[in-house]
Amino acid sequence: MADLFEERGEEDKVWGSMVKQALKRRQPSFNEAYHGFRSFGELLEEAQTRKLLKFERDERSGGYIIKDYVRDE
To answer: What is the span of the domain harbouring residue 20?
Structure first.
């Protein structure tokens, strides 16, 4: 997440789909189903429930826009 936010800067949006693509680049075998989720959106919703990140839904596309995340100390 840190890399995506750094790359995009303050003005550009970080989409949930971008997070999944970054995960797949770093760990090609990544699959949300392995972790018990039916979709990546479900995984993001659980992360928000656990206060690991904050997102909002884009009204037009229905996609997730990541607003903030828990940073490593």
So the answer is: 2-69
How many residues are recorded in the chain?
Answer: 73
Cβ distance 66 to 53 under 8 Å? yes
Question: How many structural domains are present in the chain?
Answer: 1
- Ranges of H-type helices in 1-73: 2-8, 16-26, 40-49
User: What does pTM read for this prediction?
Assistant: 0.85
Residues whose CB falls within 8 Å of the CB of residue 48, separated by 6 or more in sequence, listed in order = 54, 55
- List, as own/partner pairs, every contact residues 50-54 make where C-beta atoms lie below 8 angstroms and the sequence separation is at least 24, other chains included: 53/1
Segment 22-57, tens digit of pLDDT: 999 999 999 999 999 999 999 999 999 999 999 999
